[in-house]
TrEMBL record:
Organism of origin: Phycomyces blakesleeanus
RNase L inhibitor RLI-like possible metal-binding domain: residues covered: 1-35
Protein name: 18S rRNA aminocarboxypropyltransferase
Residues covered by the 16S/18S rRNA aminocarboxypropyltransferase Tsr3 C-terminal domain: 39-165
Entry-linked HAMAP family: TSR3
Record keywords: Cytoplasm, Ribosome biogenesis, rRNA processing, S-adenosyl-L-methionine, Transferase
Top-rank lineage group of the source organism: Eukaryota
Transmembrane segments: none
Length: 177
């Protein structure tokens, strides 16, 4: 199954999970002008990735835009934007740089999330197996990933995410009381 990344070199290549996956021949680095027909984890997506994207992942794979949120305005999204750009739902990072931070996934985690949610967990696990911390991603996010994988479409994924976030907020308020 194809796995691809547009690398805007915003992070340290020694710590970049996408660069490591590329060195291991587990993903292909694309040039800005190259198109990719698979599902792409991108901050400009308009829908959340969901099991409805399974067929696209099966046929064309998964990709990621590797960029820093702090430098997002430097990324030429108009050149790489496609009809299969997707947002990722709420998940917690387990990589050493952003451990425990929600929505701060690195490339490997983002790609694995796409595979888990669309019904190809073995592909996600294969990517994460290249990292010492990789097993923690499923351990921390397994329940949510499984709930997202049972949804029928993007709207349902967003509803599951919002219900989960509401529960977290209520639990936090109860602890404060």
């Amino acid at each position: 199954m194809p796995v691809a990344m547009w690398d805007f070199k915003h992070c340290d290549p020694k710590r970049c999970s996408g660069v490591k996956l590329s060195r291991c021949n587990m993903l292909k680095t694309l040039k800005t002008s190259q198109r990719f027909r698979g599902i792409v984890a991108s901050p400009v997506g308009e829908k959340a990735v969901s099991p409805a994207d399974r067929r696209i992942v099966e046929l064309y794979g998964a990709g990621v835009v590797d960029c820093s949120w702090a430098r997002i305005d430097e990324v030429p999204f108009s050149k790489i934007r496609g009809p299969t750009d997707r947002l990722l739902p709420y998940l917690v990072a387990t990589n050493p740089v952003n451990y425990g931070k929600p929505w701060k996934l690195n490339c490997a985690e983002a790609l694995a999330a796409i595979f888990y949610i669309t019904g190809y967990p073995e592909h996600g696990e294969a990517l994460l197996a290249k990292f010492k911390w990789g097993h923690a991603f499923k351990k921390v996010n397994g329940g949510l990933l499984s709930r997202y994988a049972k949804c029928k479409d993007s709207a349902e994924v967003v509803q599951v995410q919002n219900d989960y976030l509401k529960q977290l907020e209520e639990d936090s308020e109860r602890k404060e009381e």
